[in-house]
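Q: Predict the assembly, please.
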Amino acid sequence: MSIAAVKPDQGTRVLSYAGALLETMDAALADHANVFIMGQGVDDFKGIFGSTTGLAGKYGAQRVFDVPLMEEGMTGVAIGASLVGDYPITTHIRADFSFLAMNQIINLAAKYRYMFGGLMRCPMLIRIVVGRSWGQGAQHSQSPQATFAHYPGLTVVMPSSSQAILDMYPAIINRHPGPVISIEHRLLYNLDFTVSPSEHRVPLTSYVARKGSDVTVVATSVMVLEALRAAQYVEDKAGISAEVIDLNSISHPDWDLVAASVRKTGRLVVADTSWLEYGVAAEVCRQLVMRDPGLLRQPPTMLGMAPAPCPTAKSLEDIYYPSQHETVDAILTQVKGDKHGIALPVERSMTEGYKRFRGPF
Amino acid sequence: MKDEAIYRRLFRTALLIRLVEERIIELYPSDKIQSPVHLSIGQEAVAVGVCDGLKPDDLVFATYRSHGFYVAKGGSLDAMFAELYGRKGGVSGGKAGSMHLAAPEVGLMGSSAVVASTIPHAVGAALSFKRRGASQIAVAVFGDGATEEGVYHESLNFAALMNVPVLFLCEDNGLAVHSHRPVRQSYRLAEHAASFGIASRRLEEGWDMLAIRQATLEAAAKVRAGEPFVLEIVTSRYKEHVGVGEDFHFNYRTADGVDAWKRRDPLIVDQKLVEALRPDIEREIEAAVAFAEASPAPGRAELLTDVI
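A: Predicted assembly structure:
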């Protein structure tokens, strides 16, 4: 699948999500002597799904190195290095493993600038990867954006395309003043995107990924792609104009942008990669209601994981996550009501749509 | 005599710490200090001996019981009292309080109220020193209870694997809040460190500032050569875990152990030197208290600064 993230122009090329990560990691090491990358397997032959492959050989073991199984310790080591002026990049091949580092992330990194009245800063980038499909199950599938964004002091982003990585990572690494958690999505890694050279085209906040006028779809991470595919489908089949907003920064979204879109359309779908309860979906509603309870013409539709731990069986997993079928149905129902009568795509398993994605990861 | 001059220097700093904390005890009932305080009275010799054995640009990563290390490393007394008072003139503008003292300008790189949480920070700083070929070392200060936390083990393992210049400094007062070692530890610290290939030393004479200084000099020399080291110093916490009182009446420990320690405590035994130094130190402390009293309280303008 190739998804055009930007209008083609001079200098456009095709680049996978993993390729974009590798380019930004390579550039960070080349451009900043104080940058180093550490994490389980960053220097092995798989290189965090291709995002660090070859960098240890190119920059040496002082810059790119494997660590023991020590998520809390590694994050603490990163904080200490950051406090004395280095810029660490750490990785967790599944977001679930970052929970072992919660103490350092939440009690220490998130607090160090404020708690010491500005005396201390620990800028660093924590890359965590959300798993989905091929039986990731309960402990390889969690998407903790709401958890991290809840704590002041953390900046949380969810790049949904190669372009977002190419634009955001250079603006984060060695430039953003505090700790940043980037929640990458495993399903995106092998996808090809069209990218173009840009001057920070994707900001460290929300942006309109597709303009529209009938309904607003606020989405995160891989659900931005699902929303874009669904928006194309409803335009083709029903002439519906859906506006897709990539929330992109979960900790610092552009709520004015979201509110302006909903003011225009009066209809809202939120498509998130995690649970709805106390999550992104809930926060979108809070922000809109606090601004103007009359912004919506009708109740919104919320798409997220079912309120249970993630099951492993494919038959259960397929109904655990919202499928393209449901995303399209949500948009159609918002605009035309639940008796819209328009044929839905037969795609009920999202992984069917991502043919290039195969196990074991 | 050189040793005598060093002793006097160490003694003065230790007495400064004790008199600072005794002033805190006097002030505490007034509620001017509205923050939990974990007093280091009884443990001053460790902070003083260790910091004197370090070079000025060596970095210390500390705990919630760090008034002693803050003063011994050379932090400003005015800024400390203003911090305890929660005032704008405080070292962190009142956002830190007693448990989070820091003085990066003199190498105190923060203190945390979550036990063991700054241990890996020292390892990380040491990793950076090694990467850039600096001659500095990093010191992780923690209590004996902290060695039970998983991150202590992770930190030793990583430090040994990477051969980074970090000194693990255990202040062993035998207590984790109110729990004694036998219910907490099934290992011996030295043997545990040895299993990582890390050399260690246990110093029983934790009242002896010169011995602590000498042990630190020797340990720091090894660390500076690129070998992590565990230095365990036995000490005694005279006061309750948190707060300004004593806690013998709760019967979880007896006064006997502390009394035995006090009989060796130079700040108690050497009253002649105490009295010689006291007036000057008290003037210093009163000036710091006056600074704190005069410093304005932070407000709306400060509430949301330095968040990100």
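The longest strand of chain B covers residues 166-172. Chain B touches chain A through 42 residues (CB under 8 Å).
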